[in-house]
Model the fold of this input.
Amino acid sequence: MAESILVLTHADETGRSLTKLSMEVVSAGKDLAARLDAHLAIGILAVDSVSAAGTVGGIGAPVFGVSDEAFAQARYGTDIAGYEALYRAVQPTIILAPQSSRMARVAAGLAHRIGGKVDTHITAIRTEGGLEVSRWLYRQRIETVITRSERPWVLTFEAGVYPPFEGTGGDVVVEPVAVELPPKRTKVIGVRAPAQAAQTIRPDARMLFVAGAGWTKKQADGQTHALEAGELILGFLQKTGASLGSSKSLVDQGGDGQPVLPFLTHMNQVGQTGSTPRHAKGLATCCHGEEPHVVGWRFIGDRRAISLDPNCGWARGKADVVYVADAFKVLAKVNELLGSRR
Amino acid sequence: MLHALHIVVCAGIVPDPLQTLEPVTGANGPALKNETMLPAVLDPWAASALYEGANLVAKNPGSKLWLVSMGPKAKLQQVMMTVAQKATFELVPIDSASNGFADAHATAAAVADAIEGIPGLEKTRLLIFGGWESASRGAGVTLQVVGERLGITDQFMGVDQIEMREDGSFEVLERVEGGKHQVSVCAGAPAVFGWATGNLPEPRGNPQIGMANMRTVMPALQKAKPTTLADGGLKFVSATLPSQQRQTRVVKDLAPEVIAAELVEWIGAE
Done:
């Protein structure tokens, strides 16, 4: 079957260029089109798709755009109508899209509307035996390679699978696509960032710091030291700019009346019940547990751990280095050294 | 003014996170080794949706909560023994050998059919809840397709909070990139909410609620008809465990000062 590919993209918050992840998927589309000898088209959803199209200059493929003030906001009803219009204009067999929060909100609904199927969180593609894609199941615990016979097939790509497309600049001819938007029952009123002092999973950080439940357990003196633990952790985060992850057990402790680290919320959860962030380095402290928690740092490159238990499931076989030591003492010294360096 | 809501929580069951999973290839494609023997739990993010739904129902008198759950009947019964103690709901079971390898589109079709079959459900009051992704397939597909099948075009994913307003509208916080929340206001039901973790802790089990729930749960389970899911053209080429063994260097008997110095150097290294 001859394939044709449509790459669906969206503008960033400036409205004048496409998001980085969109540009990565443009690269994916270009590569896949070459491999499958398929027709390629780019679809842009933006307030002004012509303005946003400049970043794909030199792509060598037709560019289609839907433009409307409504696309200034990421909203299911209007976004899906815009993407559906782009699909109808191109009628591709394969649709590639970024795994952004905006696209993830509508990709499956879109697939259903156009009579197709969707597979999300794609981490690799191969074409040797037809189009096959990789994705994880059971929260990054089982890796699968899948294929589908049905078309159209929507695929959303994780970040980092392809480098961003580097356009040559210049004017891009955008074919405008008319879109009929539904009544807007939902109004986006803004974005709420966590308070400046609050620490969450931050994708831009180079390092992930994982706080385990051990921080609030009784220490060698038979007492808990949650306040001291909180100060040490916050001090470390302020000095390093690290992203803060935690286990569900530590986040949930507040509800059980146990000592808590007050700055931790469910947004910090990593692992089976939380996120699986991607950072170059990870430092796990006072963590314990096995596979379900460890998936929290499946995509962490260089991993170290501080634990009193050398056989801890977070560390043995999962970390590059485990320091068998008291994290309270080590982190206090680390903060001291980091402070003196500044 | 308070508004009576009809909240339907869609929640699958997954192997207990403490279990080790191993893929095997059977006659019907990939599956988990000893899958029938693995203890199961309610899918974690969908469980958050259940607790948030129960909380909303408690705050809005006249509201009602249903739990639509798909899985093998025996597994559903096992999971309900625990879940039924957490919140008051009416179970709508779908008896199916569903797992992470099942096609999300077929799953959504079965779930949507089950919701449409709920007697007395009013669409003008309907809020569809679920996890934004499951802990099995982790695709974030099922809820959206359920919404589309039911004609609901106000959908929110990665939800951490809903605040109902007096006029029946509600403010929603959805997770977006950078650890931030997008804040939206929706005019009112019907709507679909794919929950992240929300803000509520897991409720303590209450045996009285459990006993009251089980009076309807057991008959519902007995009546559940077996459902076979179509594969939707999905074919698994392979399913493997990731290579995850690292050569861990275990550092013992070092003073905190020495460890700290090594860590600081490592943190600063490019």
